[in-house]
Design brief:
Length: 488
């Protein structure tokens, strides 16, 4: 055998060998990586401990708009993570039909008495809203709600159930069907409360009946319920979506949500807003960024070990309209994560970027409105996120990785259409987003200022200022000097 032939055989065998080891090898497709953050690294280490310790539960809370309320995107992620790390629950659920909306899947709800509901979108009540973004109330004494699990339920029933409600002198009390025994009650500040009930058999149906607590009580308010998994280890994955919602609605009208975050101390929070903001001509991106920053800092204060991941708004073309602020909104999300030590999953880029909705629609992955995806499209997006999350897990836990080869190969096969259509010119970026902006702002050095103090003021690194102004490695500056400050 000639040397040349031997080399060819060696290279071929080597390529086959290395294609079968190391699940995090690069692939030829539009996969994007999660950007790192301090708390995400900590969370990924804790997640790894679940495999070693049967008493660990990893709590995820996923907030968003209709994409999350429908639970296809979040549901696919939950299924993937439950299959990998164990099922410790589906989090807090809400009877949306009492607020004239849809869901949750697999729960049949019937009621007696008059119930009224509202959400963070059409907030006209004095009631404080919680994580679900919805609330329903009744002033009818003896009003009731019946819940029944159907075969379409994707979660797991359990022996225990928790009811979240509002407590106080002006509020009615409630009782559950006699098979359920009260085992715990907690009342938080401002009246948010929970009660946990236990049954000897698995709970596949239950009833809640309102009872006047005293002569001054006026109404009962329900925030949701959750099956408390019998499993002592795994992932408890909450999902909370509101049709049409924007970040501003969540921040302004969900006072109890932050109480629940503080109570639950989740390991990870996912935010999937931005689609509705993309069509809002009046949005002030500076205020949007400021609100994002304030919210991140609040979460870090009340739940300091919680990792935060934002997903960018997917590309959409609602009823043929171009989302004039899609790029602007996503840029603010990117900026907020970089400057506040949070993480980002660029779902928009993973889809194929600007105009890619038309390609997804052509491949029958969206609904006709080109605003919402169909179940297959959402499932594909959920798999894409799951792959990136598990890839980040493997990078952080190099000595104890999990296999993601099968998922990677599925995605390579499913995402071929992106490669096939990548040269198609679909539509143009709105003019206001095509303007090439100066990448710098300017600062005149005042007496006593240093590169360090200026960097803190503008939320950029010292090294970026040093590089932009060709300063020496010590960053020496003088009073009156005009510095170029890179825009974050």
């Amino acid at each position: 055998m000639t040397k040349k032939l031997l080399c060819i055989v060696f290279l071929y065998l080597s390529s086959q060998l290395f294609s079968q080891i190391g699940d995090t090898l690069p692939v030829k497709t539009n996969f994007v990586q999660l950007t790192p953050s301090s708390n995400l690294n900590l969370a990924l280490h804790k997640l790894n401990s679940i495999k070693e310790n049967s008493s660990n539960v990893f709590t995820i809370m996923h907030f968003g708009d209709s994409h999350i309320q429908g639970d296809h995107f979040s549901g696919e992620i939950r299924k993937s993570l439950h299959n990998t790390f164990g099922n410790a629950g589906q989090g807090i659920l809400f009877p949306y039909t009492l607020s004239k909306s849809f869901g949750p899947r697999g729960i049949k709800v019937t009621s007696s008495g008059i119930w009224t509901g509202t959400n963070i979108m059409n907030y006209k009540s004095t009631e404080k809203l919680s994580t679900t973004g919805y609330v329903c109330s009744t002033k009818s004494n003896n009003a009731s709600i019946e819940f029944e699990v159907t075969d379409k339920f994707t979660g797991s029933i359990a022996h225990s159930i928790r009811i979240w409600y509002t407590s106080g002198e002006q509020y009615h009390d409630f009782e559950m069907n006699k098979e359920l025994k009260l085992v715990e009650e907690k009342i938080y500040s401002d009246g948010l409360a929970q009660r946990t009930f236990y049954a000897d058999s698995l709970i596949d149906h239950f009833s809640l009946t309102v009872k006047a607590a005293n002569d001054s009580s006026q109404q009962f308010t329900l925030h949701g319920f959750e099956f408390l998994s019998d499993e002592k280890s795994g992932i408890n994955y909450h999902h909370y979506g509101v049709v049409g919602a924007q970040f501003s609605h969540f921040i302004k009208n969900s006072a109890y949500a932050f109480k629940q975050i503080e109570a639950l101390q989740p390991d990870l929070i996912l935010f999937s807003f931005g689609t509705n903001e993309a069509y809002d001509n009046s949005i002030d991106t500076n205020k949007y960024y400021a609100a994002l920053t304030q919210m991140i800092q609040l979460i870090k204060t009340i739940s300091p070990n919680t990792a935060i991941i934002f997903t960018t708004a997917p590309d959409t073309r609602s009823q043929g309209r171009i989302p004039v602020n899609q790029i602007n909104v996503n840029n603010q999300l990117k900026k907020a994560t970089v400057n506040n030590d949070a993480s980002l999953y660029d779902l928009n880029a993973a889809m194929g970027g600007w105009g890619s909705m038309n390609t997804w629609s052509k491949n029958q992955l969206s609904q006709g409105d080109k605003l919402h995806f169909n179940a297959t499209g959402y499932a594909l997006q959920g798999k894409m996120f799951s792959y990136s999350f598990l890839e980040a897990f493997n990078k952080e836990n190099k000595n104890d990785t999990i296999s993601i080869i099968n998922l990677r190969n599925q995605l390579i096969d499913q995402l071929k259409f992106l490669e096939e259509n990548k040269t198609i010119v679909i539509d143009t970026v709105p003019k206001q987003q095509r303007i090439i902006q100066n990448p710098y702002q300017y600062h005149q050095v005042k007496s006593g200022e240093t590169v360090s103090s200026i960097a803190r003021k503008y939320h950029v690194s010292q090294q970026k200022i040093i590089s932009a102004n060709n300063l020496n490695k010590n960053g020496l500056i003088r009073t009156g000097q005009r510095l170029r400050i890179p825009k974050a």
